[in-house]
Amino acid sequence: MHKPVSPVLEKDRIISLDIMRGFAILGIFLVNMLSFHSPFLYLDPFEWWNSPADKSTYVFIDIFVQASFYPLFSMLFGYGLVILRDRAIAKGLPFRGMAARRLSLLLLIGIIHALLIWHGDILINYAIFGFIFLLFIKLSGKNMLLTGILLYIIPNLLFALLFIVTVLFVPAEELSIYDPAAAKVSLQVYQNGSFAEITAQRMEDWYLVNNLASLPIMFASIFPLFLIGGGAAKLKWLEEPAKGRGFLRKLMIGSLAAGLVFKLLPYLLEGNLAVDFLQDIFGGPLLAIGYGLAIVLAINNGTISKMLMPLSYVGKLSLSNYLLQSIISTLIFYSYGLGFYGEISAFGGTILVIFIFALQVMGSGYWVSRYYYGPVEWLWRSFTYLKLPNWRRRA
Description:
17 helices
């Protein structure tokens, strides 16, 4: 006889996971803001934003933020699915059915997000790749970790070699990813278009990134990170960090150092398609691992832990906060809102991120003091467990 189905209890939460999720939500917002307020898909940032403040802001985001926070969130996603499975098995519950419902609803939320709110949605990819992850979830921790590392390194090295050969034999002007004409069209639509016109542009922008040609790179850059995060969960790196503290510290330092080297490549060498690929595909995840381990190792320091704790409020409501950022930002910039698209710079957008995120921290702190789950999290859990959990804390 199965034990009653119940969501994760507050006492069972791993606080470093919530802090990392909150930190990732901030980093993702910093990067996404560039696309919220400008046709970032089509423009050369150093030509579009040419003031010293804007250039410095963009360089900071490019080195320390870009391509580092979706990998962190991807690893946390795999970590979370393994925890869900472990707890389901401990209670004698049918994990695969729960996981299928969880991923199906995430896919639906992602489709709504991409179609009706913002083209930069990542939830669709997470949901689809999550179903594939279920095929690997019975692997041991070491095997899952090793499989993830190999699936990441080997294909991406091959892609890097392909890009290097391409750069050597194809004229640079033919490899440019910038499209001033498309940027102008995007600017016009988001500034002045109707909701239907914006939806059509949103779909065009979404397909530019999420098409069959880009699928192999998209898969190789996200799915293996699920396995790396899942392997870390099985090895209990977050639950029992003290046992491997020395190893984790060395891994953190090595990841941060190597990641920084890759991230600086376009500034140390002549930038091109291959160098930019290496910067993001290897530098980003290495910094992500370093950031995550830094949080894990710092959590036992009372002072630092208190400083980081507000991030956990956002992390507990990570899905709600992610979607809220898209809703608020598109209402500020698109024509059916305030219509400020194209009117703000990289520096101004970053200041806006800090302001909105500060409000999210305060709002999330208020919310979690009264409710166990965020509104979207409550819906997601209810569908996963086929049970309406009590989400209101007792006064």
